[in-house]
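re: ur msg from earlier - yeah i can do the nickel (II) ion complex, just paste it... oh wait u already did. ok heres what im feeding in:
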Amino acid sequence: MVELIDSHAHLDFDKFNKDRDEVIERAKNNGIVNIVNVGSNLASSHRSLQLSQKYEMIYAVVGIHPHEAKHLDKNALKVLKDLSKADKVIGIGEIGLDFHYDNSPRDIQRDAFRKQLRLAKEVNLPVVVHSREADADTIKILKEEKMSNHNVLLHSYTGGKELAEKALDMGFYFGAGGIVTFNSASELKNIIQRTPLTHILLETDSPYLAPEPHRGKRNEPLYVKEVAKFIASLKNTNLESVAEITKENTERFFNIK
Ligand code: NI
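and the outut:
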């Protein structure tokens, strides 16, 4: 059986309250060897850590999503720093900019992004970046914060060509998930096609963004297999090599042993 890692999921969300164990079991029985559960605020960062303690295959990433940037005060930063030192916490995220929803004012988003990038450098953990309709600001901040020697993942990549080129120049990684499989995503398909497989991590972003042929349903880590199959066809290669290379990428990126 091919072995895959889901590098981005939110299994702590309510949508999994009824069948969380089964969802995890189903993934495990079908070759998903690790799941990275990503926090979006303090409560979900705590829950991510708890999941990583309960399930051997789960790792945790802690951070405050741009939607919740207004909640990143001094105390929250300290809590994140404490959480980051726990066993099985392997990254800071998801952090970044979301100018599509603008749920927090943009200046506050930029400030929270910078502060959490600095935290990641201080505690020496990779960062998981959420960037939506904010290409120019995202790359500007990552440059100004001198992140080029740091492991940076642009999760569920939806940016344009220009950001993709600059991000590759800086050695960043790209998260490919359900969106790549959508018919409408022709520019994204081109970008992923041109991005070396060594810089791609597979993800689901469960419960959101289920890939084809499950589009519209609740997403779950098992479906990372559909993403892998799609990337294989996009890059004219086979599922086995996509699985092997992206699994290695994820282990290297997050320093999972
Ligand atoms: Ni996410």
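cool cool. Residues 8, 10, 38, 94, 205 surround nickel (II) ion (CB under 6 Å). ping me if u need the other ligands too
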